[in-house]
Amino acid sequence: MKRIETIIPNNKLNLVVSAIEDIGVGGITITDSKGRGKGVRPSLRSLRGTSKQQAEYNSLASVMTIVEDDKVDRIIDAIVGVASTGSSGDGMIFVSHIDYTVDIQTKQRKS
């Protein structure tokens, strides 16, 4: 099994979640986050609107799911297909190996 974590701009969240669900993945965890990467940070106006300053962080969403190995490439292709604009700041996908999971309710382990 693999853990796929995707960090994307908030405006791509619905597209990415729909793309993952279309492949048949049921379990998805979404976390609001802030961060800095290659993307341009937004400009913010001061309280009176007389000056602008650059935001310290971008508003991002983190989408995480655990899937069987045979779904990984399809999920990555689907995410890239809906989230990529070809610009810096499109986001990142991280894939890591999961040894096993434990269902807390049933105490059942799955490798």
UniProtKB/TrEMBL annotation:
GO terms for cellular component: cytosol. GO terms for molecular function: ATP binding; enzyme regulator activity. GO terms for biological process: regulation of nitrogen utilization. InterPro entries: N-reg_PII, N-reg_PII-like_a/b, N-reg_PII/ATP_PRibTrfase_C. Pfam families: P-II (PF00543). Gene3D superfamilies: 3.30.70.120. This is Putative nitrogen regulatory protein P II. It comes from Candidatus Nitrosotenuis uzonensis.
